[in-house]
Amino acid sequence: SLDIIHELRKEISIPKAILGEKISIDGQTIQIPMSNEMGRNIAIIGTPDIECNTAVGMAQSISLSLALQYPKGNARFIWCDFSNKFEPDTAYVKAMENAGFFVESISPEQFESLINDLQNTVQKDESIYIFGLFMDKWNYEKEPYGQGSCLKVFVENAPLNGIHFIGWWQKVSNYNAQV
Length: 179
Description:
Layout: H1 2-10, E1 16-21, E2 29-33, E3 42-45, H2 54-67, E4 75-81, H3 90-98, E5 103-106, H4 108-118, E6 127-133, H5 150-157, E7 163-169, H6 172-178
Parallel strand pairs: 3-7, 4-5, 4-6, 6-7
Antiparallel strand pairs: 1-2
């Protein structure tokens, strides 16, 4: 709810991704601090329902909750959909625009170069949140000596520079191979 966002804005603290409500009597929310510390990213793993893709909904909720904590507009939200099926929900896009943010989209072909370009970038006055959907379909170039990808080093170190990754994989094995 907006009351929770207003409370988070009042605190002099780190932005928190809000995932939803805990199953509890008092209706507390699940909040993940997105501090500039090593490994501060979010992985969503699971197969979508036929009629409703809860993973995309979670990612949208995360981005909107974070956007509302940047009243100065000093954050970027970059989306990459590896299935080429994701079209941002009109209500979500309108809510982001009302919060003062443009939803940036990149193609799957641009993903690896974006990750590599941002690898050593230090954000001073702006945070960057990159959302990867259907990461299982990413055809990445494996590192010659490790079995990971450029994403592995990125998710470990980029949060130190104010850049966070929120990704969705359908299979844990694909997540493990990439990250």
